[in-house]
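Hi W.,

Here's what went into the run:
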Amino acid sequence: MITYPFNYKRASSVDEAVALLGAAPDGKLLAGGQTLIAAMKMRLANPSDLIDISGIRDLSYIRAGSNAIAIGAATTHYEVATSKDVVKAIPALAHVASVIGDPAVRYKGTLGGSVANNDPAADYPAAVLGLGATIKTNRRSIAADDFFQGMFTTALETGEIVTEISFPVPQKAAYKKFANPASRYAMAGVFVAKFPSGIRVAVTGAGPCVFRVPEMEAALAKSFAPDAIAGIAVDASGLNSDIHGSAEYRANLVAVMAKRAVAEVA
Amino acid sequence: MTTVSMTVNGKPVSAETEDRTLLVYFLREQLRLTGTHIGCDTSQCGACVVHVDGKAVKSCSVFAVQTQGAQITTIEGLARDGKLHPVQEAFRDNHGLQCGFCTPGMIMTAVDMIRRKGVMDRATIRHELEGNICRCTGYHNIVSAIEDAAKRMTAGEKAA
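Here's what came out:
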């Protein structure tokens, strides 16, 4: 398949990328390209310019601190999944990266790309929201609770580029997903994290956008055990219905995946 | 049009191409390296896997211009001095192919996974193959071939 024509430009710094993006009539950032290029091949996207930011060295790093791990936006899923620092501090985050797509996709796809795209069935948004991470851009810091706004929609403004995501280190965390067997996208994926301040439960794949489940969070705060959420039914209204599964099916999957995630670390 | 220069199977190459040319088309149609196959063309099947700077990627999901200056290895570049690569040898010995269409991608993926993981159990090999589809469903012998190749290559390293 052939995409519409576009101009390819390579940026060597965030400032240069912002300038190139500003100068393009309808520019898009290209990082790993594992979603964007597929969309362009299907002719669902038609950018005038692609600004390649995958070569910006300042965006590719993993820095482990005592309370948080900061990861550069252009860090690949492979790098996160195999990072000793991530595996040690937040193994659930390394696990999330290790179940995205397939090995070839994980070599190319990036954290920033996944989060900025905010695909309803992407894995990373569950970890970002579940851990209450902070998204840093070239302009500001945005809390995960304010970042994800709807299907493929985020708080990012025109010309704003995700540069880093900082993940607080939880006491315990786990991610369980029921993957679509063909695409590997989440039919439902649940990220559960336990902090001294409380519990966070984030769901991807089931609805139009990643979301939290306050009833489960409250129940798990009282008792961090699978039984604590056994009686909580997830409301199917507003969840996704498609050829792969109904909204009711997905609602049930959310409950099952949440229990499995808790059981793994309780 | 952009001039793209890279090293393919150890040889420097340079060609004019459109920015929108995918790496797989660049390899097949401009360099005439047709060993890399196009299966689904939607980055699911893995028939187009090549190595870019030592990593197995799907060449239908990368533009040629992105690989400016890169070291590329395709299935044509695995054999050395007329001798098959150990993974190719193992695929032949274990009958790790039926129609053969997926084989170039399977082998390029296998070389990458053995480099990362060495000797693996069969469950791990199957998990690592999740991005490669064999439409003959000949996975059993593909897994056997990779298992065998990993053992041979590890034994070779110890002997050397």
